[in-house]
Predict the structure.
Amino acid sequence: MKIYGRENDIALLEQLYASKRPEFVAVYGRRRVGKTYLVSELFKSRFTFYHTGLSPHLFTKKNAMQEQLHAFYITLRNSGLDVDIPQPTNWLDAFELLKSVLLSKPNGQRQVVFLDEMPWLDTPRSNFLAAFEHFWNSWGARQENLMLIVCGSATSWMKQSIINNKGGLYNRITREIKVLPFSLHETEQLLQDRGVKWSRYDIAQFYMIAGGIPHYISFVQPKQSLPQAVDSIFFADQAPLKQEYERLFGSLFTNADKYMKTVRIAAKTHVGLTRQQLLEAMSKTDGGNFSVVLKNLVMSDFLLPYTSYTEGKRQERYKLIDPFCRFYLTFMDGKERPADFWQQNALSGQINAWRGFAFEELCFNHIPQIKHALGIPQVSTTISKWALQGTENTKGSQIDMIIDRADNIVDVCEMKFTNGLFAINKNYDLTLRERLQLLSDHLPKRKMAHLVFITSFGIKQNEYAGIVQESLTLDALF
């Protein structure tokens, strides 16, 4: 089967395979992003040992360790372990058996060991991590022909327990690979190869829902229109992703309800909430527990911490950036919808309002493409939003995206998702001029503000279009 995109990840993995030294590679990323597919398809004929942890939903906590060990033992036997050797009762013995399987293989050839969904193997009180550390430190790290790949969707576990481990695995990883969602360009490639003939306008809308997650995109059928696809994937009686929200958090976090509640609160605003605002909305007192929840949601790419332009770190906000979660919480969470909801309501005010905000988030997910289109791919930049609270004597203002450039230009970006050219009228022209003036009052004298419009099809050339210095369309994001 074909691997779509991932050129840089493939090149890096092949380089590590050919390195002729022990490699310990951690692969992580959001659930359904294609981590397992990437590794399994790339090395499918080259694995020496390939094991996937059992989902914790398949058994009770009481027998979790024994179930995981039993599955590991089956994989060992399928990989060449003598059938007369009994099942191990602990992970130290299990890894000793893995070592014996690897030693029994032809010497000198590259041996690829892949432990998928590794966080699931680390069940409570199993001492899995200590046994794994012993396996690598006492033996694996000295095997020049060994390439060990560990993978997991629980990004917080992967980062804390493996990549940033402060104990026996400290600084042992030779390379970490974060598998990212597809870009618009990669999404377009996948859809075209599947025979889906959509315009870029429709592909962008689906991206606002699926967020470049290959598994979600794979449900689109060749002859479906965009509304038909959305209904069949999310709203139909047997829709494959109707329960995805609960499954997503349940597979990543223990006490998933806390995480889902935090995300639900964050979804109520598009500018983000401070830590204190989130705490107040959850009726919680400040504590370390909530710090862990926030940290894990950030590491797992559900929330983005940012400071508004000209504000200090103390005003850091947490903004929901996962497109699927935003879509689900807007249109599906706790709501009874007909099977053809999207087809019936595609032109409604609610969906049009959602498109506007979702397009902003799509642009934030394509900063490299925007910088390339602006001709500044190598210029150092800082990306933020800006909101100025109004007072009795002054107007408030908000700017969707600010690109603060090292060359002393500040790109003030306005994003508009429309089904045709966007026309700036007299009143909006005045609003834009007021925003630019308010921002200029807060800029250092050496910096100059440029107005950039990012729209679906461009801006209409009328007497007010001259205020715009740069105009980008959807094509630039692809």
User: Anything to note?
Assistant: The longest helix spans residues 349-364. The radius of gyration is 25 Å. The CA atoms of residues 408 and 446 lie 6 Å apart. The chain is about 40% helix and 15% strand.
